[in-house]
């Protein structure tokens, strides 16, 4: 924790409590805690939230309370709970991606089992993605895009079809990945660019922890913060402000923000992967 830090990302909070981030998301959906949002993008937990989470874990792991029991106990102690459970609405990018995946599968005359065999993604997960019940990670979507011979940008709706050359600061298309703590802004509005310039804004501790590989090359220039990149699990690079990294996308790669501040990086792919 850096000096003066008064809030924590979901990764920070999970480590402090001794659980995985998915557990905190489940507790949030159940209405036990309601973290704030920074820039409307990623969750932030206050010291008060951390104490609440510690108590929830104690009640569930040590005392054996279920969700209802925890709520009743906290209410009896006079602790304020969110007015209602946080609901994740099935709309927008999640539905659009699922519909496009289903349309591609049906156009090719494939079953879910056949897609599963070709991608390594389970049948049940594929079914839930297609129906819009779950969000899909970039790593999984990359596998599906490769299988269907599409780039990732195909799956995101709302792109301007005009041949626009200039993109003003802060007005690039924000690509909804639903990956915690990661914001991706597309810096071109051309329909079929040869390069794909992206601006990544990443919270401390956030990143893509699952290895992916695909055709092409990637260039990364860090504007702010510290980026850690692993290639083929044998090459580790720490990229700071002003540093750049260029590598073949066919290498297995994963990355994360290992600094205490927000990471801002220009990331260029060719050919486009989104």
Considering the chains and any ligands shown, give keywords for the structure.
274 residues; alpha+beta; Multidrug-efflux Transporter Regulator, Chain: A, Domain 2; 434 Repressor (Amino-terminal Domain); Jelly Rolls; six-stranded antiparallel beta sheet; four-stranded antiparallel beta sheet; 8 helices; 13 strands; 24% strand; globular; disordered N terminus; Cro/C1-type_HTH; DNA-binding transcription factor activity
CATH architecture of the largest domain: Sandwich
> Strand count, sense and closure of the main sheet?
6 strands, antiparallel
* Averaged pLDDT: 81
Strand content: 15-25%
In the CATH hierarchy, the third-tier topology of the largest domain is known as Jelly Rolls
* Fraction of residues in H or I helices: 25-40%
Radius of gyration: 20 Å
Instruction: Please indicate the count of domains.
Output: 3
Count of DSSP H/I helices: 8
Q: What's the order of the H and E elements?
A: EHHEEHHHHHHEEEEEEEEEE
First-to-last CA distance: 34 Å
CATH class of the largest domain: Mainly Beta
Question: Going across the major beta sheet, what is the strand order?
Answer: 4-5-6-13-8-11
- Unreliable spans are 1-5, 84-92, 158-162
Overall 3D form? globular
The CATH superfamily label of the largest domain reads Jelly Rolls
The structure class reads alpha+beta
Keywords: DNA-binding
Pfam family, one: MerR_1
Domain HTH cro/C1-type: 101-155
Domain HTH merR-type: 7-76
């Amino acid at each position: 924790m850096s000096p003066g830090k008064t809030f924590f990302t979901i990764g920070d909070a999970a480590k402090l409590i001794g659980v995985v981030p998915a557990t905190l998301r489940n507790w949030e959906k159940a209405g036990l805690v309601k973290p704030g949002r920074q820039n409307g993008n990623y969750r932030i937990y206050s010291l008060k939230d951390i104490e609440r989470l510690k108590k929830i874990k104690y009640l569930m792991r040590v005392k054996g309370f279920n969700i209802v029991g925890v709520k009743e106990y906290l209410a009896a102690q006079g602790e304020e709970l969110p007015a209602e459970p946080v609901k994740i609405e099935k709309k927008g990018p999640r539905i659009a991606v699922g519909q496009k995946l289903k349309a591609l599968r049906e156009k090719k005359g494939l079953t879910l089992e056949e897609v599963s065999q070709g991608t390594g993604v389970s049948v049940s997960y594929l079914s839930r993605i297609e129906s819009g019940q779950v969000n899909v990670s970039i790593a999984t979507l990359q596998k599906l895009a490769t299988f269907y011979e599409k780039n990732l940008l195909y799956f995101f709706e709302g792109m301007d079809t005009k041949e626009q050359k200039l993109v003003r600061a802060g007005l690039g298309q924000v690509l909804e990945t639903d990956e915690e703590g990661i914001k991706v802004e597309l810096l071109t509005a051309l329909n079929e660019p040869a390069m794909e310039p992206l601006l990544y804004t990443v919270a401390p501790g956030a990143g893509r922890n699952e290895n992916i590989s695909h055709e092409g090359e990637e260039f990364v220039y860090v504007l702010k913060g510290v980026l850690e990149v692993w290639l083929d699990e044998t090459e580790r690079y720490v990229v700071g402000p002003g540093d750049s990294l260029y590598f073949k996308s066919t290498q297995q790669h994963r990355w994360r923000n290992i600094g205490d501040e927000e990471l801002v990086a220009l990331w260029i792919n060719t050919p486009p992967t989104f």
